[in-house]
Amino acid sequence: MDIATHPIVFYMFGLPIKDTVVMTWIMMGIIIITMLLIRRFKPGLLEILLEFILDLIRDVLYEDNLIPYLPLLGSLFIFILFANILSVVPGLKSPTSDINTTLALGLIVFFAVHFFGIRKKGFWGYITTFSSPIYLFPLEIVGQLSRTLSLTIRLFGNIVSSDLIVAIVFSLIPVIAPIPLIALSLIIGVLQAYVFTILASLYIASAVEINIEEAQIKEVKKLQKMTP
């Protein structure tokens, strides 16, 4: 299977469906079946997974209530984890080896950051964090876009390079030598899912954090409202 290219497999309602989409559907089926089996036979593992993800984002997001962020960040971690390691199954390819997939994940984080920031601080309060002073506003926009591009390229590059190395070695020495490389590919896949989730949490944390001055102003306003 050619890792570097993503051919069209078939058309649906006139739209081209590439192998990346098919692999994503297969991966989603694997995730659903895996979670159903765990829930049926080892429900304690789901609690362990939940606590792991909570601990993962708790170290970055200093929020009293992490539940609003859990669906997004937990889904990102599980999706990227399974997507990265799917290529170890013979005949399958990692969806994250397609830059369109990693770009979509980066854009999800991009919009989620601003969504959580606006919800936390209000639209005007959030916008002013980009324009203080006003001449830094264009640089802040460039920074927001560049880190989205960084998320995209980092995940894509690491997964493609890992899969290519395994494929090349397997074609040269198809029996024993690829086994350590497959293990290395699994480690890289898990690590990249971890790094992506951490970075997404950091970006959200930077959007929702309230500095000391803002907190003091809000506290004063709250006391003024309570004072007759």
Q: How would you characterize the overall build of this protein?
A:
- α2 (about 45-60) packs across α3 (about 70-85), α3 runs antiparallel to α7 (about 180-210) and α4 runs antiparallel to α6 (about 135-170).
- The model is unreliable at about 210-220 (pLDDT under 50).
- The protein has one domain (about 10-225).
- By secondary structure, the protein is mainly alpha-helical.
- It has a two-stranded antiparallel sheet with strand order 1-2.
- It is built from 8 helices and 2 strands.
Short overview:
The chain has 228 residues and is mainly α. It has helices spanning 19-41, 43-58, 70-85, 99-121, 123-128, 137-172, 178-208, 212-226, and strands at residues 8-12, 15-18. It is built from eight helices and two strands, in the order E-E-H-H-H-H-H-H-H-H.
- What does the radius of gyration come to? 21 Å
Question: Biggest β-sheet: count, sense, barrel?
Answer: 2 strands, antiparallel
State the separation between the terminal residues, measured CA to CA. 73 Å
Q: Helix/strand-derived class?
A: mainly alpha
Report strand %: under 5%
Number of helical segments with 4 or more residues = 8
- Count of the domains: 1
Report the principal-axis shape: globular
| Strand order across the largest sheet | 1-2
The average pLDDT is 80
- How many strand segments? 2
Strand and helix order:
EEHHHHHHHH
| Helix share bin | over 70%
Spans of at least 5 consecutive residues with low confidence = 211-220
